[in-house]
Amino acid sequence: MKVYFIGAGPGDPELLTIKGKKIIEKADIIIYAGSLVNHKITDWAKDGTEIYNSAYLNLEEIKEIMQKGINEDKIVARIHTGDPSIYGAIQEQMDWLDEKTIDYELVPGVSSLFASAAVLKRELTLPGITQTVILTRKEGRTSVPDEESLTKLAKHQTTMAIFLSISMIEQVVEELIQGGYQNKTPVAVVYKVSWPEEKIIYGDLSNIASRVKECNIDKTALIMVGDFINGKYENSRLYDKNFSHGYRHKV
Question: Residue 13 is part of which domain span?
């Protein structure tokens, strides 16, 4: 038997992958991040499955549950929000499993970044605007490397997705402007994307902080910055009749 790390998507249970759903349906033990994962995902568990909410557990307790499950030859599903490779705190769990020579597998999920781009109906990498997306967060109770401060990253003027920082929106705006973004740079804040209470707040760096405060949003929101939101872009060459490639010749 093995441990499965499953990306449960940003909220909507239907954004769980088919593979993830199949594992949940056969799992004997489920440990899910209840502070972020939609609890309805556990509805697919079979009768008798042990279900634990890791919001109330520390790392050692999570390890104990995993170890007990493997000792009893059970399938353990460790369910994380979005895709667990982004701010999922899974590396320490995987390293411990490696030390214990416990077999495990990662099942990728839909990140809140891509769910947010979908509800905004925008492409993150528009030709003529940017071909780069920076995924980051502002330092808070947990630090970030000095070279990855928002001020230093802002100089690249790319599409930026800022996680885990909505409660510090004023400081985020200040650092982005200090780093080079203009006051009128478009911003979209997506709150609880794909949940029933989903909300989108549009603005720019000059007014987004006040708009967020007016909506009383201080957690579970992604800050998306850049001209991809409403900038003038170039058409892609991918479908340009005058651009040939390995599958298509010029007409």
Answer: 3-107
Same domain, 128 and 208: yes
Taking only the tens place, the pLDDT of each residue in 3-35 is 999 999 999 999 999 999 999 999 999 999 999
Rounded distance, CA 241 to CA 160, Å?
Answer: 32
**Res. 251 pLDDT band, cuts 50 70 90:** low
CA distances from 201 to 34, 77, 84 (A): 26, 35, 26
- Give yes or no for residue 241 having a pLDDT over 90: no
pLDDT in tens, 31-48: 999 999 999 999 999 999
Give the model's pLDDT for residue 140. Answer: 87
Whether residue 160 is found in the same domain as residue 217? yes
* Total structural domains within the chain: 2
How far is residue 224's CA from residue 198's CA, in Å, rounded to a whole number? Answer: 15
The pTM assigned to this predicted structure is 0.92
Burial of 107 from C-beta contacts in 10 A (0-12 / 13-18 / 19+): buried
Residue 3: which of 85, 65, 82 has the closest Cα?
Answer: 65
Distance between CA atoms of 108 and 5, rounded to whole angstroms? 8
Residues β-bridged to residue 203: 187
Do residues 97 and 17 both lie within one domain?
A: yes
Instruction: Please choose, from the candidates 33, 27, 43, 44, the residue with its C-alpha nearest in 3D space to the C-alpha of residue 10.
Output: 33
Sign of the alpha-carbon dihedral angle for 120, 126, 129, 130: positive
Last residue of one domain, picked from the residues 57, 81, 107: 107
Distance between CA atoms of residues 142 and 144, nearest Å: 7
What is the rounded distance in angstroms from the CA atom of residue 82 to the CA atom of residue 158? Answer: 23
Residue 22 lies in a domain: yes
